[in-house]
Specification:
alpha+beta; 4 domains; Pdz3 Domain; 19 strands; 11 helices; 2-enoyl-CoA Hydratase, Chain A, domain 1; six-stranded mixed β-sheet; six-stranded antiparallel β-sheet
């Protein structure tokens, strides 16, 4: 009986579908079946011709961007490739100097017509005035609010925010509690060096850090290769070449996500400066520093450029965020230069990417960043299959956690994403362990209430017992002071001790 009922339902559905199709064919004009051409254009034209609602340029642009993003994501997901993606860059920021910029000193992402603050550069105009997760919604111009939502596009917003050195502007800012602040800022030049030295106050140990690898752009930015060469020359002139057998250079590649290949190697192109690999490693035709294999399968070899090794010692610091081109450099320094790696195991990214410009839409440049091939070290070894040999130095303290970001007022017996980072902060700050450790699952329990109250009393803050903005700001300040203090960097300090003990 049941099967007969199902059969009747199926038959009714077929008849209904048939009748619906029949009536639709009588009511609607005949439409051709789409061919193998541009399906997006075909669908858009169909909407423009037959859709009940009006399709304007903004809707078409939004649909096209979603179309690009979905296509790229589908291909990337099909190949389990997290590195292939659509990248959107405001044209007002292309090209830009990777070593410095004039502004208020924040990094941000566009959230519709607003700017969501990601980070604030220490010592900039925004330092102490803006904080991560603040939302910039407009400007006060001659006493009148200029809301960004009234401007035509993101390019107009960014152009409105442009300013020369000493320009004064008043920002309309809403904190995560929804409270408005009018923030006056004075524009200045912000230094963002991709390579820089730090005086460790050690007679025989120099330190040079590379944060990322940027390319040279004529009349715009010198590129990391040039910046690195200048810093290295200064260190060699002032320290490293004076009794070099007793000197050591610490090259810090921690948290370096990679970047432009030209910063590592100029590939023999005229007009380009030698890359970092060429400046640090000996040219050996029989043993390439690294190789790259694109889809064509043709292996491209890269060699060092020195006639003889550097006369001083080199040690390399890496961690789990050392990736891509930074791993290429670390591998070359170890296997071709014989230099030891210290820290924690690297990321393990053995593929490299290239970029294709797709389209400019309303002041935004959309580009395809795609995986082009794989790179290998030590005659065909993959960093994903065979991790680099790193002498383990565990990091400790606040350097081991991400920056706590205030998500809004959080009170007792509440669960809020982001609270867990504050709980981790207090565990480290107060040295809590065992049963005394705070839970870190974002739940505001009695123990968290007690610790926050203690912190507020010690710091002279209003005793609310809540995770409020004043408390979050003080946590932020302590965190930033600590992670930017090299003397509180346990990995670095341990490495310095190892170097000094080996020399004695």
């Amino acid at each position: 009986m049941a099967s007969r009922k199902l059969g009747i339902i199926f038959l009714a559905a077929v008849i209904l579908s048939f009748l619906t199709g029949y009536h639709a064919s009588r009511l609607l004009p005949f439409l051709p079946i789409a061919g193998g051409g541009d399906m997006f254009e075909y669908i858009t034209e169909s909407f423009q011709n037959y859709y009940y609602y009006e399709i304007d340029d903004d809707a078409i642009n939004a649909a096209f961007i979603a179309h690009m993003e979905a296509t790229i994501r589908a291909y990337a997901e099909a190949n389990n490739d997290p590195y292939t993606r659509l990248v959107a860059t405001p044209l007002s920021a292309v090209p830009g100097d990777d070593e410095r910029f004039v502004g208020i000193g924040i990094s941000f992402f566009m959230e519709g017509a607003y700017l969501r603050v990601l980070d604030v550069y220490r010592g900039s105009a925004a330092d102490g005035k803006l904080y991560p997760n603040d939302l910039i919604t407009g400007l006060v111009v001659d006493g009148v609010d200029l809301e960004f939502v009234t401007l035509p596009d993101q390019t107009s917003i960014l152009e409105t925010l442009r300013g020369e050195v000493d320009t004064v502007k008043i920002l309309i800012v809403y904190d995560p509690d929804g409270i408005r602040h009018n923030v006056e800022v004075v524009y200045s030049e912000i230094l963002t060096p991709t390579a820089f030295a730090v005086d460790l106050m050690e007679e025989d140990i120099a330190y040079l850090r590379i944060t990322r690898f940027s390319e040279w752009i004529e009349d715009i930015t010198p590129g990391t290769s040039k910046v690195f060469a200048d810093r290295l020359l200064e260190l060699e002139t002032t320290m490293l070449l004076d009794h070099p057998e007793n000197k050591t250079l610490i090259l810090d590649l921690r948290d370096n996500p990679g970047g432009a290949l030209s910063a590592l190697h100029n590939q023999g192109q005229s007009g380009l400066l030698p890359g970092i690999v060429q400046r640090l490693l000996v040219r050996d035709i029989e043993n390439s520093v690294f190789s790259m294999i694109p889809r064509s399968g043709k292996t491209i070899l890269f060699n060092g450029g020195l006639n003889q090794p550097k006369p001083y010692h080199i040690v390399v610091l890496v961690n789990e965020q050392t990736a891509s081109a930074a791993e290429v450099l670390a591998a070359g320094l170890h296997f071709n230069g014989g230099y030891a790696l210290y820290g924690t195991p690297t990321f393990g990214k053995d593929v490299y990417q290239n970029t294709i410009r797709l389209r400019d839409i309303r002041g935004i440049r959309y580009s395809l960043v795609y995986t082009e091939g794989r790179w290998f070290y030590n005659d065909g070894m993959s960093v994903e299959d065979t991790p680099l040999p790193v002498n383990l130095i565990e990091q400790v303290g606040l350097h081991t956690i991400d920056m706590p970001v205030y998500m809004g007022l959080t009170v007792h017996d509440e669960v809020r994403p982001g609270l867990g980072l504050y709980q981790q902060f207090f565990n480290i700050y107060y040295g809590l362990d065992g049963e005394d450790m705070l839970r870190t699952d974002h739940y505001f329990d009695d123990a968290t209430l007690a610790i926050i109250s203690q912190f507020q009393l010690e710091e002279g803050l209003p005793l609310t017992g809540h995770l409020d903005r004043d408390t979050a700001i003080r946590v932020h300040d302590i965190y930033m002071e600590t992670v930017h203090d090299w003397q509180q960097d346990r990995q670095l300090m341990t490495l310095i001790d190892l170097i000094k003990n080996n020399a004695s």
